[in-house]
Amino acid sequence: MAPIPNIKLSSGYDMPQVGFGLWKVDTAVASDVVYNAIKAGYRLFDGACDYGNEVECGQGVARAIKEGLVKREELFIVSKLWNTFHDGERVEPIVKKQLADWGLEYFDLYLIHFPVALEYVDPAVRYPPGWHYDGESEIRPSKASIQETWTAFESLVAKGLSKSIGVSNFQAQLIYDLLRYAKIPPATLQIEHHPYLVQQELLNLARHEGIAVTAYSTFGPASFREFNMTHASKLAPLLEDSTIKSIADKHGKDSAQVLLRWVTQRGLAIIPKSSRQETMVANLNSLDFDLTEEEIAQISAFDRGIRFNQPSNYFPTEFLWIFG
Q1: Residues 280, 75: Cα–Cα separation, whole Å
Q2: Alpha helix (H) ranges present in 159-237?
Q3: Residue 253: CB partners within 8 Å, gap ≥ 6?
Q4: Does any domain span residue 319?
Q5: Binding site as annotated, residues for substrate
Q6: Prior bond of 128 cis (ω within 30°)
Q7: Which segments are annotated as binding site?
Q8: Site: Lowers pKa of active site Tyr. Where (predicted)?
């Protein structure tokens, strides 16, 4: 297998273009999944407070390091700030907790998970806190601004708690606002990105501002069917689409590899996941061929502007204050 190429971040650090996503990796298997992914060749792991599996993922990392499979400096560990910790004084303590959960001294990249500030929930009460203040139905917004949160993020870099900082699920207006006051610009933007949601103008903005983009949910509705979203169940599965399959056949690849290559060939990073070793390896091997410009255009033409990962899709009546 060829080495995974890196993307140079504005912070000066290199980020692997292909990483391993940890969303919905069950705690019962997370340690083994991370360990096996390291054995397969992955070096970037994309985690978050909200995934609820950082302790177990850290155990997988520790096992691989102890056995000499990898050194800490060869790994690129990403985590994210949950919505309930946006108040400036809450950022550093929760980062230190997350680092302790991982068994690490620093993150390579730390992101604002959503541009949504919710009232603080003490980790001793419930962790991860989720969306609801009471753990059931009540949504309580916080008054913390993105500027307040970002200023606290910049202090993480100064204190060596994270080498790079960035944002996730931000749109153009918020990025432009952030760039007005940021002393350290965001190194990366992580977004939902698949053929049904191309967001080309946002990609152009990020490229112009020197912000690397990481794409998640590359396979479109596949990750969201379990949430009973109407538009997720009605859309044709991209992995089964005849156009994607035809392109895959031409290159001797499978549909997943074609969709992943559609992303990376256009300069973005990817974070697919799988618990199956053969699929882990296949996803890494999505870099060893090139699509034609016509094939890239064919896939991009699927664009419908359809977004799955936004709060109003999970809790439509409770987030009118954000999206209504």
Answers
A1: 17
A2: 172-181, 200-209, 230-234
A3: 261, 286, 289
A4: no
A5: 113
A6: yes
A7: 113
A8: 80
Main-chain phi, psi angles of 49, to 5 degrees: -55, -45
**Dihedral of alpha carbons 82, 86, 87, 88, sign:** positive
Q: Which segment of 106-110, 190-194, 295-299, 320-324 scores lowest on mean pLDDT?
A: 320-324
- Domain count for the chain: 1
pLDDT (tens digit, 9 = 90+) per residue, 118-137? 999 999 999 999 999 999 99
What is the 3-state composition of the chain as percent helix, strand, coil, each rounded to the nearest 5?
Answer: 45, 15, 40
* pTM score over 0.85: yes
Amino acid identity at 104: L
* Residues acting as catalytic residues: 51
pLDDT in tens, 62-80: 999 999 999 999 999 999 9
**Residue numbers of the domain that contains 41:** 13-220+267-284
How far is 278 from 145, CA to CA, in rounded Å?
44
Q: Is residue 143 part of a domain?
A: yes
Task: Locate all alpha helices (DSSP H) within the chain, ordered by sequence.
Answer: 27-40, 54-66, 88-102, 146-158, 172-181, 200-209, 230-234, 242-251, 255-264, 277-284, 293-300, 311-314, 320-323
Distance of CA 272 to the CA centre of its chain: 9
Q: How far apart are the first and last CA of the chain?
A: 48
Instruction: Indicate whether 255 belongs to any domain.
Output: no
DSSP 226: G
**CATH no. for residue 180?**
3.20.20.100
Q: Are strands 14-16 and 6-8 parallel, antiparallel or unpaired?
A: antiparallel
- CA atoms of 299 and 308, how far apart (whole Å): 19
Determine, yes or no, domain membership for 137. Answer: yes
- CA 23, 26, 27, 31 torsion: positive or negative? negative
